[in-house]
């Protein structure tokens, strides 16, 4: 397949001497925060992993987090931008007992690789400075390569059920008047995009549910534990509803991963890291469910996602309030407070 023709404009406007834009600051900041957190978690996973292939996979992912953080620090240093505090060795206890089985690490890596690709995919079109653009392009390509390794291991070790198979259409057709029906009259079968997003959301949520279940098991703060238990039950309900939608179409779905969490009650992570992680994961669900609504046609499916979005938003707000109360919420880069400047 031929590539598109190059355009020669001879412009130097995207040089590294230009100031970082708000988009570049925000995406670099978020990427650093996420990778500093992932570095702690993957270090713990790597410490306990026994399966040879899974350990290599974790090592590859761990090296990427280190490379990404190093590159961002270099960009920030050039611009005298303060490096975020993020997370470090104080937020992880490598000597804590095993909290997950090796198999879970593969599912977790797939979840986080999807999250990373989502961030980089949004970032690439809105960054212009050459070093930042090159960085996010490298991030996307590296995580795509990691994703291929993850899928190979999942298939080789029988850790995954592929998305459902549906019939090939006999011909191209236009939809009928009942296309949007979901409650009354004739309800059409789900189309391929609706099925794909249900499958993807189940796959994401069974990983998220096992993680929040483990966190609720080991977290020290009772208020955070209560929130985690609420999030666990909320996620379980969403999974069951999504599974039912596929099963009603006689289609298979990914299964729960709860059995991959051990009975340990000794926390390997700080409460701050666990709360931030779940707040971040639930925030990503908002984007995932929004994408699902965008390709959906049936009213019943739209209502199901709508109810889930409302509950998820409430969880994220509750988590953010606790983060602020405890002084754990780092301030992202923000615009100048013109009103405050004027008053002074």
TrEMBL record:
It comes from the Bacteria. InterPro entries: DUF3231, Ferritin-like. Pfam families: DUF3231. This is DUF3231 family protein.
């Amino acid at each position: 397949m031929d590539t598109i023709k190059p355009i020669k404009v001879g412009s130097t406007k995207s040089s590294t001497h230009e100031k970082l834009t708000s988009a570049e600051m925000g995406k670099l900041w978020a990427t650093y925060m996420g990778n500093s957190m992932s570095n702690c978690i993957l270090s713990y996973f790597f410490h306990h992993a026994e399966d040879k292939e899974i350990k290599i996979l974790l090592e590859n992912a761990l090296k990427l987090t280190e490379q990404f953080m190093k590159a961002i620090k270099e960009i920030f240093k050039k611009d005298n931008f303060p490096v975020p505090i993020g997370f470090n060795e104080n937020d992880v206890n490598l000597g804590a007992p095993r909290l997950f089985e090796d198999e879970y690490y593969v599912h977790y890596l797939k979840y986080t690789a999807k999250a990373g690709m989502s961030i980089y995919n949004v970032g690439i079109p809105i960054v212009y400075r050459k070093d930042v653009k090159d960085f996010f392009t490298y991030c996307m390509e590296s995580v795509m390569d990691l994703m291929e390794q993850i899928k190979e291991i999942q298939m080789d070790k029988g850790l995954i059920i592929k998305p459902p198979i549906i019939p090939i259409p006999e011909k191209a057709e236009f939809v009928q008047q009942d296309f949007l029906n979901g409650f009354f009259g004739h309800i059409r079968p789900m189309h391929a995009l609706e099925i794909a997003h249900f499958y993807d959301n189940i796959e994401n949520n069974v990983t998220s549910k096992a993680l929040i279940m483990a966190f609720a098991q080991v977290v020290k703060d009772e208020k955070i534990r209560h929130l985690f238990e609420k999030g666990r039950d909320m996620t379980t309900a969403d999974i069951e509803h999504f599974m039912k939608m596929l099963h009603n179409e006689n289609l298979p779905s990914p299964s729960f991963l709860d059995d991959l969490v051990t009975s340990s009650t000794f926390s390997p992570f700080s409460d701050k890291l666990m709360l931030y992680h779940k707040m971040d994961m639930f925030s990503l669900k908002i984007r995932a469910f929004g994408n699902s609504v965008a390709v959906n046609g049936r009213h019943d499916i739209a209502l199901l996602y709508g109810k889930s979005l409302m509950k998820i938003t409430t969880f994220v707000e509750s988590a953010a309030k606790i983060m602020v109360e405890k002084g754990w919420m780092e301030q992202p880069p923000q615009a100048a407070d013109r009103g405050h400047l004027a008053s002074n």
